[in-house]
Amino acid sequence: MESEEAPRPLLEVRGLTRRYGARIGCAEVDFDLWPGEVMGIVGESGSGKSTLLGCLAGHMAPDEGAVIYDTRDRGPVDTVTMSEPERRMLGRTDWAFVHQNPRDGLRMAVSAGGNVGERLMAVGARHYGQIRETATDWLGRVEIAGDRIDDRPSAFSGGMQQRLQIARNLVTGPRLVFMDEPTGGLDVSVQARLLDLLRGLVREMGLSAVIVTHDLAVVRLLADRLMVMKSGRVVESGLTDQVLDDPQHAYTQLLVSSVLQV
Ligand SMILES: Nc1ncnc2c1ncn2[C@@H]1O[C@H](COP(=O)(O)OP(=O)(O)OP(=O)(O)O)[C@@H](O)[C@H]1O
């Protein structure tokens, strides 16, 4: 008898649609995300990337569709219809969300160590010494010197703030990370370093991720698969290298030839 369960996607997205009045935010989006896989979502401004990410992460209710997540304890559950407390709990434990602007993902009046430690406490850690030790370890993993642990994020550069936001998000060992333009607004050299760091962490931790970006260099480096959005719909999807090297849809061809890149 076969005792092992068949592998199944971590996330199954079906017919996801969100309108703003008569305007389409995103429409009929379908995809599976497998454990350890990174999905990139690209498209020009207004193509529906943020709307889709918001619906996936439970920040926004879709009008139609399902976002089925393979929970640790109950197996696949539609997060669209789950209760708000349940969704919040997922957001604190199994899921993480990295905002484009670190200010949206950090508590600016709390020390760097506090920003990381607070997340551990939210999932039940109580031992002060251990929390500080783990926080120090995580600051090191995102290349922030241990002697900055008591500094507030407002004293950090943009790149450091973003790395701190990543540490705060990953310290609890999530399985799925949503990222909204994680390198947006940073200098090119800072972006490269951050991308390297993210790639290392994603691989090391075997993370699954959904990354929204308009920067094709970001998906080239981080994403296994790619979805290209236009006017709220997915117009092309596939393995990242395949889509970027041999785009089939005219819109993707424009994107790749950088005509549409912002
Ligand atoms: N709060 C809102 N009210 C009305 N329409 C909205 C709202 N938010 C987004 N839209 C519309 O939904 C569509 C998709 O927008 P969305 O912000 O998801 O795109 P995007 O690809 O993330 O763009 P950007 O890269 O500029 O953030 C656009 O037509 C936009 O005008």
From TrEMBL:
<keyword id="KW-0547">Nucleotide-binding</keyword>
<dbReference type="GO" id="GO:0016829">
    <property type="term" value="F:lyase activity"/>
</dbReference>
<dbReference type="Pfam" id="PF00005">
    <property type="entry name" value="ABC_tran"/>
</dbReference>
<dbReference type="InterPro" id="IPR003593">
    <property type="entry name" value="AAA+_ATPase"/>
</dbReference>
<keyword id="KW-0456">Lyase</keyword>
<dbReference type="InterPro" id="IPR003439">
    <property type="entry name" value="ABC_transporter-like_ATP-bd"/>
</dbReference>
<keyword id="KW-0067">ATP-binding</keyword>
<dbReference type="InterPro" id="IPR027417">
    <property type="entry name" value="P-loop_NTPase"/>
</dbReference>
<dbReference type="InterPro" id="IPR017871">
    <property type="entry name" value="ABC_transporter-like_CS"/>
</dbReference>
<protein>
    <submittedName>
        <fullName>Phosphonate C-P lyase system protein PhnK</fullName>
    </submittedName>
</protein>
<feature type="domain" description="ABC transporter">
    <location>
        <begin position="11"/>
        <end position="256"/>
    </location>
</feature>
<dbReference type="InterPro" id="IPR012700">
    <property type="entry name" value="PhnK"/>
</dbReference>
